[in-house]
From TrEMBL:
Keyword set includes DNA-binding: no
Organism of provenance: Terrapene triunguis
GO biological process terms held by the UniProt record: GPI anchor biosynthetic process
Entry protein name: Post-GPI attachment to proteins GalNAc transferase 4
Keyword terms of this UniProt record: Membrane, Transmembrane, Transmembrane helix
InterPro entries on file: PGAP4 (IPR029675)
Organism superkingdom: Eukaryota
Length: 407
């Protein structure tokens, strides 16, 4: 058979299947048909297709979690070695190229906060090499962007990856030769103070319009700069978004489901059902040869599509928004996690003042502290969907774990 015949064969089989389904529909009741569709979808097809999707309810954790975690760690280690070779092969710039022209105020300063941990993964090198490559590819649109490294290791000289990056980027270190001004505070308060130090130094060193504060295990997505440019120039310039305290670029995928405390997601979920319910009902009526839609059929397909979207995983629906910057969503922020946070210069100064008033501890880390400001200070903050960075670090500096898992 010709290649054209091979191309048409699946389409012909699909049409034949629809005709057979249509004939069956004409000789069976709608209740039987819809019950059969539900059983086949949720009992057979979805489990077969989605059992390896990490953020799906159909994910077979006891089968796949350990091997997938090991595979992720192996790939992460290979990525770290690739990042190390990237900088070893890169031409070392002169001092003026490293520091940039501070007389020219950067539009966006990318500050990478780093601390020494698990040398074999080279987390900070992965982050810095990706930003460096993306800035080179971005060209003239990113000339006003600058990368700044903030080393908060207590013995800064022992952080070999930071020392290597010091040959390519401007860098500041908080501690000098094991000097520890925070010896009497807990680890969570120290992390907050490190964070505030890096934010403050970003403002003092460059006086940028925006500061993107990135932790050293948050690797940027390929489309981060076009999306940020669209968001900052078009979306966040609107009055109700302009004075936001911060914009989060990451929220854990496991917390992105519809069934969550955030009311906006419930509205989005209902909207999905209202859109797909009539659409699938029309398709069902066309295939089954029924003359008109009825509200019980529309209601069934609305609930069917909502259940399918939740069980397969909202995270995978959000990935469709990566097709274009205008499709990215900006919604009210949720509490967890600070791998990548965007501040305008005025909001960064407000945050520094607020953080001085707060004391962090176990159960009240810096992400919770920042989120609490929305209630206590009447501020607003937002999160971008889908994520603009990938959190690749499985080894936490706050919660040591020798056998980390993806979930």
């Amino acid at each position: 058979m010709s290649s054209g015949g091979h191309t048409l064969y699946p389409a012909a089989m699909l049409l034949r299947g629809l005709r057979l389904y249509g004939k069956w529909c004409r000789f069976s009741s709608p209740i039987t048909q819809l019950l059969t569709l539900t059983v086949v979808t949720f009992g057979v097809l979805a489990p077969l297709i989605c059992h390896r999707l990490l953020h799906s309810y159909f994910y077979l954790r006891h089968w796949h979690l350990n091997p997938m975690s090991q595979e992720f760690l192996k790939q992460n280690q290979e990525d770290g070695q690739t990042a190390l070779r990237y900088f070893e092969d890169l031409r070392t710039p002169n001092s003026s190229e490293i520091s940039g022209d501070k007389a020219l105020r950067p539009w966006l300063l990318i500050t990478i906060i780093t601390v020494q941990r698990r040398n074999e993964f080279h987390y900070v090198l992965q982050v810095a090499s990706r930003f460096h490559r993306l800035l080179q590819q971005c060209g003239p649109h990113c000339r006003s962007h600058q990368v700044f490294l903030c080393n908060v290791e207590q013995d800064p000289g022992s952080h070999q990856d930071a020392r290597l990056l010091g040959n390519f980027f401007a860098m500041v270190s908080r501690y000098k030769n094991w000097e520890d001004p925070d010896a009497a505070v807990n680890q969570f308060e120290k992390e907050k103070r490190d964070y505030a130090f890096c934010l403050e130094q970003s403002l003092l060193a460059y006086s940028p319009e925006y500061v993107l504060l990135v932790e050293d295990d948050a690797v940027p997505e390929e489309e981060i700069f076009p999306v940020l440019q669209h968001l900052l120039l078009a979306r966040l310039s609107k009055p109700h978004l302009k004075d936001a305290l911060y914009l989060k670029l990451y929220h854990p995928e496991r917390l992105q489901r519809y069934i969550n405390p955030e009311p906006m997601r419930i509205l989005e979920w209902l909207g999905l059902g209202m859109f797909l319910g009539p659409l699938l009902s029309f398709l069902y009526s066309w295939v089954s040869g029924r003359p008109s839609l009825t509200w019980p059929i529309v209601l069934f397909f609305a609930l069917y599509s909502m259940a399918l979207a939740e069980l397969v995983g909202r995270h995978y629906l959000l990935e469709l928004r990566r097709l274009a910057p205008v499709l990215y969503n900006v919604v009210p922020v949720t509490e967890c996690c600070t791998p990548a946070m965007l501040f305008s210069a005025p909001s960064a100064r407000r945050v520094l003042g607020y953080l001085q008033e707060l004391h962090c501890r176990r159960g009240f880390a810096k992400d919770t502290a920042l989120y609490s400001l929305l209630r206590t200070k009447g501020e607003r903050a937002y999160v971008v969907e889908p994520n603009l960075v990938r959190h690749v670090g499985m080894f936490s500096s706050l919660r040591p774990n020798d056998s980390p898992k993806l979930l």
